[in-house]
């Protein structure tokens, strides 16, 4: 995989070309070395230990190491009515450069390059979304699913996605609207449908719709509320109740197969997806 993409990578110090050097990767211009760890080129590494006291965050880290279990639970407990990234890229030819920014361990398609802050197994590039080590106009498609809210400065991150995309290249994004705080390890933002349009104004909009519907939004808020009032102010009890109600309320989410289609559902969708292409002229 790395052999296929090394020519599209660039040095973060001097924007020079990179090439294989011993077991690592080296900048041919300034000589900076980027280690390869777990099969990922490491441009950036962040410490996640700060949040290890949180039970749910610990559980997330555990599940990230067990991807099959993670995605089984993810699709069992949530109902998502919007177009998936897999579907969105079905017409992008195999072997194109498709980058999933802040991917986690998800495998959308076997030729998709996973970029994440942490070199987990299954990550190809460990890098910050605000400073991608990819050359200008090098990517055929960029994906970023439910991750922009965890990035401190989402506008520069979107500008980076714009920079690395080829003209006409495809972008696929999911952003949350009505959802409680969820650390991963941090959580900063939510977007309305109008907010999504504003954030991606430099892209030609192809599709903008509900990904997680109003029932999912409602059950997740109800779950949080029940967990808060039943917790008696114990953080541990709150997290346990939160998981219990996640399971109990999950079946109601199937109602979204009907209600996500209603026009007014935009007003309290759980999340939106956006599909666009890179325009050559940008709007200020
Ligand atoms: Zn360099």
From TrEMBL:
Boundaries of every Methyltransferase type domain copy: 125-173
Keywords for the protein's UniProt record, in alphabetical order: Membrane, Transmembrane, Transmembrane helix
Transmembrane segments: 236-259
A matching Pfam family: Methyltransf_11
Highest taxon of the lineage: Bacteria
Transmembrane among keywords: yes
Signal peptide coordinates: none
SUPFAM superfamilies assigned: S-adenosyl-L-methionine-dependent methyltransferases (SSF53335)
InterPro entries found in the cross-reference section: Methyltransf_11, SAM-dependent_MTases_sf
Record-level Gene Ontology MF annotations: S-adenosylmethionine-dependent methyltransferase activity
Protein name: Methyltransferase type 11 domain-containing protein
